[in-house]
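hi!! sorry for the late reply, been swamped w classes. u asked for the two structures so here they r. pasted raw, havent cleaned anything up. first the sequence of the first protein and right below it the C-alpha cells
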Amino acid sequence: MDGAIGFGTYSTTFEPRVRFLRIDDRYPTDADYPSKITIGFIHREGRITDQARAFLDFVVSPKAKALVTNMGAIPLTE
C-alpha cells in the first residue's frame, strides 16, 4: 500500500522489493543503526528432540553464521 510503513527484520533479499529508511543517516547494516531485533530460542533441555538439537547446533555453526552475514544481518551468538 502506498505510504505504508512496516517494521521487521532486515535482509538483503528484500532490497529489490522494499525501501529501507535511513535513520539519522544510518542504514540497517550500520553497526550503530538505532533499531535492532534479537531472535532467541527457548526450550526445555530435558525435552528437546534430536532434530531440534541439530537445528540449535546448526544456528550457531560457522556455516549458519556465514549465511546470516551474507544476507546482511548479524549472526546469532550463544
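now the second protein. again sequence first, C-alpha cells right under
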Amino acid sequence: MRVVLSVLGLIGLMGCATEHAPTFVIPGSDSEVGAPLKGAPMQAFEDGLIAFGKTENPGVGPIFNRRTCAECHLNGAIGGAGDPLVTRIGQYVDGGFTPLASVGGTLIQTESLGKFISADGQQCDVPKEQIPDGALTIHRNSTPTFGMGLVDSMPDQWFETLAAGQREAVRGIVNRVKVTLPDPADPSQQVGSLRVGRFGWKSQTSSVVQFSAEAGLNEIGVSSQHCSNGASVDTFATELAPNGMQISLECQDGVPGIDTAAGECLEGESKLAPEIQQIATFMTFLSEPPSVVVVEDPSLVAQLELGQEMFQAAKCNECHIDSAFTTPQHPHTGVPGNHKFYPFSDFLLHDMGSLGDGFGINPGDGVEIGRLMRTAPLWGMRYRHLLLHDGRTADLNVAITAHDGQGRESAEAYMAMDPEERTALRKYCASL
C-alpha cells in the first residue's frame, strides 16, 4: 500500500502507521499547497490573493505579457511556477552587454492594447513589440513564489556563510545588488543600498517588494509610485514604451498617468502603492510547498532513500543544499521566527558553462557573466511542468545532464550511476 500525504502531521501520522512501517519524509510545511504561513494576516493575505489573480485591471498596458500574476504562476496552486515563457533580448557591443534600452529593454512584451478609444474619445493604436534585428534572444520560465517571504527574511550573512563553506571548485557568488524599492518593514534598506540578491534566474532581485513592483510593470504593465523615508520612488512609475516608441498619455491604458500610487510622501514616511503592497503581502506569506510523507510502501521508500543517497553522492546538495534554513527570531517580513525550511538551493550564482543563458546582468557585463545562473530552488519540483531557466524540457534526465561548468561534476557522477540509481535520483528530485 502506498500512502502519499501532502500535509505532514507527524504525531497523527505515526499514530496511524504501524510501529515498524517504513517511512520517508520530504520536509515542508504542514499546510496544503498554496496556503498561507501560520500566523499570516489572513485578511491581507486574501486581499493579496485577489490582487494576484485579478482579471479586470484597467491599469494593464499599454504593452504586457499577461493581465494577471496568476496566469504565469499557477502550477500546483496560485503562486506556483508557470508554463508561459517570456522572451528576453540583448546584445554584446565591443564585448559589453547592452540591454537595448533604446528599443524597449531586455524583456519583450508580447501583448498590447491594440486599437481602442480612450476615455477622452481619442483613437488609439498601440503596436506590439518586435524583436530587433541582430538581437540575441532567450526564453525564461516563470519561477514559483512559494516560500519567498521566508527566503526574503534571511540576512545577507546567511548567504555569505553558505558561499564561504563551499568547495572552491563549486563555490557560488553572492550577488549584491542595489535596492531600487526598499521594503518599508526593513529600516536597513535604502534606495541605492546593497542587499544580497536572491530572486530571479540571476539573483538580480533582493526582496519580495521589489520583485512585485518589477513584475507588475514589466509583465502586466502596471506602473506604480511608492514612498521611502519621505521621498517618492518613481522607478516603476513610467509606462512601458513598445520598442521605445512613446505612447500618448491618453492611450497608455485605462488609467491615465500612474496606475497605482502611494500618493504624497510625508516626512520620513515609507509606504508602497496599494496594489503592489497587496501582491507583496500575498507572496510574503505564501507557505513553502507542503511535506510529503510516504509510508507502508517498502519499495517506494527504498527507492526514495536510494535517490536521496545518490543526490548526495553526486554532490548535488553542494549547491541544491538539503539542510535547513532557519528564519531569524524576529523576521522583518513578519513570517514566523525560528522557522525551519528546505528550499534546496543556496541562492548563489554559479558558473554553469553552456547551461548559462548567455546574458549579462548589468550594462557592460562581459560574456563571462552570461555563464552565471542562480541555483534554482528544487522545492515544489513535484508541481513543475517545465525545467531549467528556459523551460526547454520536462525531462529530469535532460535537465540533469545539461548541467555544465560548476555543475558538470554532478552531471558526470549521475551519468556514471547504474540505471536503477539514476531512476531513484530522478524519483527523489521529482518528489521535492
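hope this helps!! also noticed smth abt the second:
The CA atoms of residues 60 and 221 lie 5 Å apart.
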